[in-house]
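[Q] Does anyone have a clean C-alpha cell version of this?
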Amino acid sequence: MRTLQLVSLSYYEASFFTLFITLFTTSFITAQDTNSQALCELDFIDDKLTFLSDGTFQNEQVVKDAIIKLEPCGIDGFDAQFFGTLRNFSKLLSKMTVGGKNVESLTYKDLLEELKKVKSTTGYKKIRAFSELSGQLSTRVGNYENWENDKQLFIELGSSNQIMDKVEEYLKKNRNNTLTYKEILEKLQK
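[A] Here you go.
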C-alpha cells in the first residue's frame, strides 16, 4: 500500500523559525480519534466534489469548507487548515486520481478515505505534533523564570541552539517581558 507523504519533517525542522512565526496565529481544534468513527454516515457523503469542476477549487476557503464538512467523520479544524491549502490539497487530489479516476467523479467519500489514509501516516502525525507544540509556544508569554521549562518545547521542536540562546538572552535582558515567544522571535528576526 502506498501512502502519501505530503511534507517531510526535515523541511519543517529546517524552516522552524519561519514556520513558528507564520503558521499558528490561530488555535486549532483538538484532534479527534478517527479510528472510533470507522463508519460515517452523512447525507452528502456520495455527493460529488463540485468545487473541483466549477472553478472554485482555487479558493482555499472553499476547499477548507468542504473538508470541514467531514467533521462528524473525524476530520477537524487542523485537518481543514492543513489540507485546505492549494499545495497540500493538490497533492491529495493527485493521489485520489491515481488509477485513472476522473476528477469530476470524486465524492466526499473519496476525499474522506484519502484524508484518513494520510492522517494515519507517521509523517502527518509528526507534523501535527510539531504544529501543536509550535502553537503552544506561539501563545505563551516568554518568562525568564520559566525559561528552562519552555526551552524543552524549543528542543522538542528541533530549534537550533542559536535561536534558543537569542531567546534566553532576550529574556535575561527583559525580565518584565509581556511578549509571546512568537512575538519575541519576530522581534529577533528583525
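[Q] Thanks! Anything notable?
[A] The radius of gyration is 19 Å.
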